[in-house]
From TrEMBL:
Converts 2C-methyl-D-erythritol 2,4-cyclodiphosphate (ME-2,4cPP) into 1-hydroxy-2-methyl-2-(E)-butenyl 4-diphosphate. Belongs to the IspG family. Binds 1 [4Fe-4S] cluster. Its cofactor is [4Fe-4S] cluster. This is 4-hydroxy-3-methylbut-2-en-1-yl diphosphate synthase (flavodoxin). Residues 22-262 form the IspG TIM-barrel domain. The lineage of its organism: Bacteria, Bacillati, Actinomycetota, Actinomycetes, Streptosporangiales. Keywords: 4Fe-4S, Iron, Iron-sulfur, Isoprene biosynthesis, Metal-binding, Oxidoreductase. Residues 277-362 form the IspG C-terminal domain. [4Fe-4S] cluster binds at C281, C284, C316, E323. InterPro entries: Dihydropteroate_synth-like_sf, IspG_bac, IspG_bac-typ, IspG_C, IspG_TIM, NO2/SO3_Rdtase_4Fe4S_sf. It comes from Streptosporangium pseudovulgare. Pathway: Isoprenoid biosynthesis; isopentenyl diphosphate biosynthesis via DXP pathway; isopentenyl diphosphate from 1-deoxy-D-xylulose 5-phosphate: step 5/6.
Amino acid sequence: MTSVALGMPSVRTRPIAERRKSRQIMVGSVPVGGDAPVSVQSMTTTVTADINATLQQIAELTASGCQIVRVAVPSQDDAEALPIIAKKSQIPVIADIHFQPKYVFAAIEAGCAAVRVNPGNIKKFDDKVGEIARAASDHGVPIRIGVNAGSLDRRLLEKYGKATPEALVESALWECSLFEEHGFRDIKISVKHNDPVVMVQAYRLLAARCDYPLHLGVTEAGPAFQGTIKSAVAFGALLAEGIGDTIRVSLSAPPVEEIKVGTAILESLGLRERGLEIVSCPSCGRAQVDVYTLAEQVQAGLAGLKVPLRVAVMGCVVNGPGEAREADLGVASGNGKGQIFVKGEVIKTVPESQIVETLIEEALRLAEEMGVEVDLDDEDGPGAQVVVG
Ligand code: SF4
């Protein structure tokens, strides 16, 4: 099968900003920081001790594009499940530990790719930091210092009155300094807050004061819609300044949704190659076709098509031809007809009733030209028919 360039226009965009220069750590096989691409991660919602359920969820996350997964380790049973989970997971597993230093050692011994500790809860084991640093260093396991507004160190809460950006950063850097005293710098940091404004300010401060890679997160961001908005706004602001090395979108929704949102954020910012993108107008009084239905039908028809393709669905001739020409494929509608554009050229005009099928046909043809095998006779729909060649 031949592979051809789609010609103008390209869906590749320049990254939004030069990345902050951070030191690089390895979370298992995934580099974080330095010049590594910004990675997307999530956390399982299963009881970690339920090994099958946890591995099943990790498999679903992996299939959705998750690159690093975190599992909670609140009990001995969870700690005992870690060796199997770490071994069988296809992506690096981070153990999330609060309160109990013994689970940090268990996670390191279990082969976890990293351990997350929370300084707000870790105070009791500040004196264990040397031992943790030694064990982590011996096993090549990085530590995430994960500060969270909801569990800020009591001393800092008293000093600042609440979880201010300064308090979050001081907590993180204090904990880092304890590890640094033992020569351990294999660290990444997060300073999460549920308010995107405080969160952004905290990460900006932190970015200026250290070179550790940063894990971005808006904590307790809320249900899917609100959490998506908060995360997109906060991550967008920071990534636009080059700040952020790995991201976790926190949603009160299945973790696979977090990966979809995180991936879409990175694609929107040009930090990851875009997949299929539908550019559709919002419609207005000038629309001469039902744009919503057209856009939805095209999206449904191409769902799952894993190919960088921009498809424009436009309602009239005001912006329609321009957008359709700029996309890889598009339609400018008007008077019950649709002008179909491919690579900037009008290839045909079809009646409104044939717009969707023509766009899908042409998209699949372009996908094939890009080396993606598409079985047009499969009854499960184009998305399920695609095999990347
Ligand atoms: S393309 Fe036409 S129908 Fe769509 S929003 Fe613009 S002016 Fe309105």
